[in-house]
């Protein structure tokens, strides 16, 4: 995934890699896709870092059973992409089952070692 240019098709492909890694709890792929200085606001309103996100998967706190993403918008601005997605997710968090619909915004940026998520936010929607 090194030296991939920011194009709509490449960002969509990276989004698919991200979804697959989330569903499978693939920490190695998540580690590669998320920037070390990532900041993300989760639906609870908490701000998490890459370490917190990876630890959530590593410790088995979050298990995604199904996810159904639908890309709404994708804008390329120089070396950065802004993506909005509506996603239905079924899973378990800290042992409790959940099923919800969320809207996410994610920011992907081109670096020498590839395209990485640098930030984003998610909110629950009806």
Automatic annotation (TrEMBL):
<protein>
    <submittedName>
        <fullName>Nuclear transport factor 2 family protein</fullName>
    </submittedName>
</protein>
<feature type="domain" description="DUF4440">
    <location>
        <begin position="11"/>
        <end position="114"/>
    </location>
</feature>
<dbReference type="Pfam" id="PF14534">
    <property type="entry name" value="DUF4440"/>
</dbReference>
<dbReference type="InterPro" id="IPR032710">
    <property type="entry name" value="NTF2-like_dom_sf"/>
</dbReference>
<dbReference type="InterPro" id="IPR027843">
    <property type="entry name" value="DUF4440"/>
</dbReference>
């Amino acid at each position: 995934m090194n030296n991939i240019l920011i194009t709509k098709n490449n960002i969509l492909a990276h989004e698919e890699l991200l979804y697959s890694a989330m569903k499978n709890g693939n920490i190695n792929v998540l580690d590669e896709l998320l920037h070390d200085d990532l900041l993300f606001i989760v639906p609870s309103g908490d701000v998490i870092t890459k370490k917190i996100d990876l630890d959530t998967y590593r410790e088995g706190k979050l298990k995604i059973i199904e996810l159904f993403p639908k890309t709404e918008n994708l804008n390329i601005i120089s070396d950065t992409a802004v993506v909005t997605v509506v996603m239905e997710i079924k899973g378990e968090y800290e042992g409790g089952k959940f099923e919800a619909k969320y809207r996410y915004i994610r920011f992907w940026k081109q670096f020498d070692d590839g395209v990485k998520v640098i930030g984003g936010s998610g909110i629950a929607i009806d």
